Amino acid sequence: MTTVTEKTALRDALGLLKDREQVAERLLESSARHSFDPDTELDWAAPLEEGKWFLPPELVSLYGTPLWRRMAEEQRMELARHEVAALASLGIWFEIILMQLLVRHIYDRPVTSAHVRYALTEIADECRHSKMFARMIDKTGAPTYPVRRLHHNLGRVLKTVSTTPGSFAATLLGEEILDYLQRLTFPDERVQTLVRGVSRIHVVEEARHVRYAREELRRQMVSCPRWEAELTRVSCGEAARVFSIAFVNPAVYTNVGLDRREAVAQVRASGHRREVMQAGAKRLTDFLDDVGVLRGVGRRLWRSSGLLA
Which InterPro entries does the entry mention (predicted)? Predict the structure, then answer.
């Protein structure tokens, strides 16, 4: 098979970059072998299981706090049910932004290239994921949890004006932290079978998306103008700050009968929660540091988000 190859080899702190078309061809082959239709792969008709969690308890935002210790087990499990719906709502919001960023990325690129074909494949994956998350929310019986209006509108700005490297940095931010949490969720037998199944599908397919975004971000950071690299550092740091806030929707506390202000304050003060979020971001922040994104103002914004140890 003939592929379009790079005219000039590119290198960054991680070494020589792989040919863009060859990376895309491998990802297309993986997609052909390991893609899922959630509508048929998962048993949506099966009843929810009595006594099972919707998240591992250690991943529930209030875990280990004084408020958590006062809560009855039933209320803790109810909070987990609402938080999995809030995370799925956040995931849908993010994936809708991601799909628009990918369409912008390929708009001026050769439509027959493997790179574009894989981007279209990823968009199809994200469409299925968003439908899967929406169906899971409906199955849990919890409400949807839209992000704050301010963050919703910031997302509108991001998907409209983001630079190409900024788009891929933001993509990784949304994908890798959720991926970490889901990798802890899908093998956990304490968790509802449906939630584990949704997590497994998402983890398998997101691994390709992360590879695609990492390779392209590396390429963009060594080839883009200096101003674009600087803007990427700032926009990525601001995205991290917004994402860390949006990760817990305060409405979940009200809906399970807790004092919202007290719950939010305890989550912010929770060392366990901080460790979970920083562990989820560690692989990403190490990578962003290596490729030159975590510098200057951008690094300070990452620190203010609480995601950077």
Answer: AurF/CmlI, Ferritin-like_SF, RNR-like
Length of the chain (residues): 309
Q: What gap in Å lies between CA 280 and CA 68, rounded to an integer?
A: 22
> What single DSSP character describes residue 11?
E
For the stretch 196-226, pLDDT in tens is 999 999 999 999 999 999 999 999 999 999 9
Q: Is the separation of the CB atoms in 178 and 34 below 8 Å?
A: no
Q: Are 205 and 35 in contact (CB under 8 A)?
A: yes
CA distances from 288 to 54, 168, 176, 218, 225 (A): 31, 11, 12, 9, 18
Closest among 120, 135, 122 to 41, alpha carbons compared: 135
Question: φ, ψ for residue 303 (rounded to 5)?
Answer: -65, -40
Question: Furthest-apart CA pair in the chain: how many Å?
Answer: 64
* Backbone angle region of 156, left / alpha / beta, with phi > 0 → left and psi within -120 to 50 → alpha: alpha
Q: What is the 8-class DSSP label of residue 56?
A: -
> Cα dist. 253→75, 112, 145 in Å?
10, 49, 12
The helix/strand/coil state of 191 is strand
